[in-house]
Design a protein that fits this description.
19% strand; alpha+beta; two-stranded antiparallel ribbon
Length: 414
């Protein structure tokens, strides 16, 4: 069986920036088709001809999110961790662990452990082929343990173009009773052999066309990692600052606003995260957990309420400070999120984009005027329950990662 491994999902730049900060952009438009957001569940027709479909649901941001009496917001004291400094050792470790193994190069050498062999193979027992024992163009990492004992080891020492018979015995505990405990022979053709390369100036342009030397490549990666670390630190500081103002203020979100944000988070964050991470729909995950969508929405209410409070704080700070959004502000926001201004407007509409940028300006104002106290991670209080994270997916991770596809009978059953 092949196990489907989860892939870490990156939300589209603007949505990620909005949602992960927990005061994400609304989706309110008056003059375009994006006036409302529609969550559409695919209609499916069962074998008996009956149709199953979820009704389309419009997600409309309320004109008013509730009532707020803004508390102290300028010069507030905020605790956060010391800035993180990326080291050369971390960059080298990342290159060695992640970059180079994903860029293996073809070699004419004999196969050794760690290499990836592209193979065709046909398995037989007593000279007769058996179901699931053959494949073509299969990439097998030697030493991965994906195939039964003896198979991978039997390829070590051979080269591209070689043909070899690998003798193995299926374990007594093998999942297929027809094969368990039986000796088998796999006729293997080695099509190609790839090996993890050394990082050299010659390899660098294949990894990044903008770089010519190892030193340039390392420096660029280090700068990117540091930018990410700085961005994360700024996000944490922003969140802590807004939470502090929420505590200082009197805020009563409306029921309509909380309901809107619950559905907005599900549509624009959790549904795409689940699909990209696990290849499953939210309903699939909920079914695994024995929950309904209504159950899930109820669980998100506290998160949604806190999120609405944060949005209301940002809006009120912007109002009190008489902030406005200029074209230059919009262009900078688009650039920061790696899209053009036209793409930004097309994706969200001008009104929503201006609303989002205005809220961000308010947040930046609060952070820039805050008194920052750096403390260790142990000294920081526990993360607020209102922060939007992937925690809601934790319960289903085991089930989702356990979903697998049928593959060769020669692979190890685990």
């Amino acid at each position: 069986m092949k196990k489907r491994t989860g892939k870490r999902f990156a939300v589209a730049a603007i949505v990620a920036a909005a949602v992960s900060m927990a005061w994400g952009c609304g989706n309110k438009e008056a003059d375009t088709e994006s006036e409302t957001e529609t969550s559409v569940a695919e209609s499916e027709t069962a074998e008996d001809g009956s149709e199953t479909a979820a009704e389309e649901e419009e997600i409309v941001r309320p004109e008013s999110l509730g009532e707020i009496k803004l508390g102290e917001y300028k010069g507030i004291e905020v605790e956060t961790e010391e800035p993180y400094i990326v080291t050369d050792e971390e960059v080298d470790s990342y290159i060695k662990t992640y970059i180079l193994p994903q860029n293996k190069q073809s070699v004419d050498d004999e196969i050794m452990e760690g290499d990836t062999a592209n193979i065709d193979y046909v398995g037989t027992i007593d000279g007769v082929e058996f179901d699931g024992g053959s494949d073509e163009g299969f990439d097998l990492e030697i030493g991965s343990g994906r195939f039964i004992d003896g198979f991978e080891e039997g390829l070590i020492g051979y080269k591209k173009g070689d043909k070899v018979d690998v003798n193995v015995t299926f374990p007594e505990s093998y999942g297929n009773a027809d094969l368990a405990g039986k000796p088998a022979v796999f006729a293997v053709t080695i099509n190609d052999v790839k090996r993890t390369p050394e990082l050299t100036d010659a390899l660098v342009p294949q990894l990044d066309p903008e770089c010519r030397t190892v030193e340039e490549y390392r420096s660029k990666l280090k700068e990117q990692f540091q930018d990410n670390a700085d961005y994360s630190a700024r996000q944490s500081l922003s969140y802590a600052a807004i939470e502090k103002i929420v505590e200082n203020s009197e805020i009563t979100p409306s029921d309509e606003a909380v309901e809107w944000k619950v559905k907005d988070l599900i549509k624009n964050y959790f549904e795409p995260v689940i699909m990209q991470t696990y290849g499953l729909s939210l309903d699939d995950i909920l079914e695994m957990q024995g929950k309904t969508r209504a159950d899930y929405e109820a669980e998100l209410e506290s998160v949604a309420e806190d999120t609405v409070k944060q949005i209301m704080v940002a809006q009120e700070v912007a109002r009190v400070q008489n902030m406005v959004v200029t074209d230059a502000d919009l262009e900078k926001y688009a650039e920061d999120n790696h899209v053009s201004l036209d793409e930004l407007i097309d994706a969200f509409g001008r009104e929503t984009a201006e609303e989002t940028v205005l809220e961000q300006k308010a947040i930046d104002f609060v952070v820039d005027n805050a008194v920052v106290k750096y403390v260790s991670a142990d000294e920081l209080s526990d993360t607020s329950e209102g922060e939007v994270s992937d925690d809601n997916l934790a319960e289903s991770e085991a089930e989702a990662d356990g979903i697998s596809e049928e593959s060769s009978q020669a692979e190890t059953e685990e």
